[in-house]
Amino acid sequence: MVLLALVLVSINLRPAITTIAGVMTQLEDAFQLGPQWLPLLGTLPVLAFGVSGPIGPWLARRLGAGRAVAVALLVLAAALIVRATVPALLLPGTFLCGMAIMTASVLVPQIVKTNRGTGWWTGLCTLGFGLGAALGAGLVRPLEHALGGSLGGALAVWAVPALLGAFLIQRSGGGPTSAPAAAGNVTSAGNAASAGNATSAGNAASAAGEAAALTPDSPSSAVAPSAVVPNAVVPLRKQRTAWAVTAFFGLQAMLYFAITSWLAVFLVSEGLSSADAAALLAWFSLAGLPASLLAPVPAGKPKVLRVLGPGLGLSVAVALIGVLVAPSGAQFLMVGVLGVVQSAGFGLAMALVVIRSAGPLTAGRLSAMSQGFGFALASLGPLAAGLLHTWSGGWEAPFLAMAGEALVLAAAGYLAIRGPLVSIETPKATAKDNPGQSSTPELVP
């Protein structure tokens, strides 16, 4: 039930963005939006991601993770309806959509970790992200035609699956540790995680040369002895692996949003029709679905993980150059290749949050940090690509800049995999008083 709810939640966390990207050229007439506002419209949801990262963990401590996600999806549904029916609220409604998406998104890895989910859990969730993106881009025009040419209706209809997702995640509760904690009481959240059989940092540290696992039978990134949880727990902001995971997440997200915001516009400039460009944008997401599902699974194997992180960054760089130089007739193939490697990068980014965390509490905090700071960085992607295109008068500069960024992504993946495990959980010395029982994790801010 929890896994089904998480997949449906994930499906709802992209259509609010890709539906707009697929009809960008129509917005000037339908919503009386000047062309100067289009780059901002592409940037707003990602900017909202960057500023709303802490909301998810804060809300989860008060309501429980499942209820917090349900509230976020209800807000998303309301924002989808408002921005589609009131043209003047398109920009603020899109920003509110981004905040709701981010609030739900940061809690997905925490719920996976809490339920001791395997790589398949993470893979199915990232598959949901990709499927939602593809459906949003691919169905917006057919829905518009089915609704008598109503673009607003085609955008608002996505409130329905958001409401269904809110219902399911509320019913499931998000798993055994999602009971509400006392308001403002971080330690209570730790107690809840402990009750859910979370692996404590102390237990992980005692297994020299091993990293924490997604499940007892599913090894995580046990890359080297250096990946052991450190004896002296330090704040998350001072752990270099946490920053490497954040950089990897932010860079792949920056590439994703830059591509989804401008790929259709680039293809139109190459001679394709608006309908064909929108279809290729949907194909970009659809082609990556198998990769987003499968990438987190082999990531649990150390030998594969060492190659997967840097290799994906290099592959994205090559695929971007391929899209730039390919003739119109070959764009179906090249856009598909780009979709595969880009979606695999997102799947790995989500998996790293779970794999490189010592327990559920760390996973929730690392998720908020990586997605908060990461999406703040990603918000620059659509804007920078648009400005580079305007400045240069062509598409070579934006695509070469994105290819260079993909090389930096490869370096971030290397550091995220090779660094020590991330932990903000440490056991209290209660073994003598409660022999045989798990110790309660403490949080280091």
Quick rundown:
With 445 residues, this protein is mainly alpha-helical.
Can you put this structure into words, describing what you see?
The chain has helices spanning 2-11, 15-22, 27-30, 38-51, 55-63, 65-85, 90-105, 107-114, 119-146, 151-156, 159-172, 186-195, 201-206, 240-269, 274-287, 289-294, 302-325, 331-355, 360-378, 380-392, 396-418, and strands at 425-427, 441-443. It is mainly alpha-helical and 445 residues long. The protein has a single domain (2-182, 235-418), classed as Growth Hormone, Chain: A (Up-down Bundle). Strands 1-2 form a two-stranded antiparallel sheet. The chain is globular and about 55 Å long. The two termini are 32 Å apart. Keywords: Membrane, Transmembrane, Transmembrane helix. The chain crosses the membrane at residues 37-56, 63-82, 88-108, 120-140, 146-169, 242-265, 277-295, 307-326, 332-354, 366-391, 397-417. This is MFS transporter. Pfam families: MFS_1 (PF07690).
Present the secondary structure layout.
Blueprint: H1 2-11, H2 15-22, H3 27-30, H4 38-51, H5 55-63, H6 65-85, H7 90-105, H8 107-114, H9 119-146, H10 151-156, H11 159-172, H12 186-195, H13 201-206, H14 240-269, H15 274-287, H16 289-294, H17 302-325, H18 331-355, H19 360-378, H20 380-392, H21 396-418, E1 425-427, E2 441-443
Antiparallel strand pairs: 1-2
Helix pairs in contact: 1-9, 1-11, 2-9, 4-7, 4-19, 4-20, 5-6, 5-7, 6-7, 6-11, 8-18, 8-19, 9-15, 9-18, 14-15, 14-18, 14-19, 14-20, 14-21, 15-18, 17-18, 17-21, 20-21
